[in-house]
Amino acid sequence: MNKRLIIVGAGGLGRIVYDALRKDPVIAQEMELAGFLDTRADLQPPPDIEAPVLGSPLQYQVRPGDIFIPAVGVPAWRRKLLAPLQAQAAEFLSYSRLASIGARTEIGPGVFLTPGAVVSVDCRIGAYAYLDTYVIVGHDVTIGEHCMIGAMSFLAGGVRIDDGVAIHPRATIAKGVHIGAGATVGIGSVVVKDVPPSVTVFGNPARPIFTSDPS
Questions:
Q1: DSSP-assigned letters across all residues of 132-187
Q2: What's the CATH number for 100-203?
Q3: What pTM did the predictor assign?
Q4: Domain segments of the chain as ranges
Q5: Catalytic residue (one of 139, 146, 168, 178)
Q6: Intervals of the chain under pLDDT 70
Q7: CB within 10 Å: which end of the chain, N or C, has fewer?
């Protein structure tokens, strides 16, 4: 029986994931693109997307053959939406078939590497992370769970990204930098020093501009 592939998130990121999966002949042969889960009851995909919104991930009851892939841009929101599915022992797809992956790199469940992403050797990418188009990850980089790495960002060798970090497009993270859990790196920023947890940095060089409540 083919698996029913369900995308969690029907917004822009969900449409990006759907488009990539729809074009992949291996996915088309092995899985049915069954639809989306989204909390917005009135949200429906464009007419040319032949996959409906099936309901909210907060109430969805996992069926035999279901397999999920996250497509939610905000790490904290992604964590919340996936929790009820995880509680039902749902299966999550990791997709990296059209990305470049180096030797001995480990990829967790529910990870999506957009076609064109490049990940070097000896890296670890945690569960439910999303790496957008043309992200480049150097050697020995660790990326935590539920992270969002925006398009054309560059992570130099030895960078350590904790859980729930959002890195916006075209950011550069210098060699060996550590970014704490729940931190945010603004668009186009150049990060040359460690970033504490829950802090938002922006600029070149990046400086703290905001601290969020980790709770």
A1: -TT-EE-TT-EE-TT-EE-TT-EE-TT-EE-TT-EE-TT-EE-TT-EE-TT-EE-T
A2: 2.160.10.10
A3: 0.92
A4: 3-87, 100-203
A5: 139
A6: 1, 214-215
A7: C
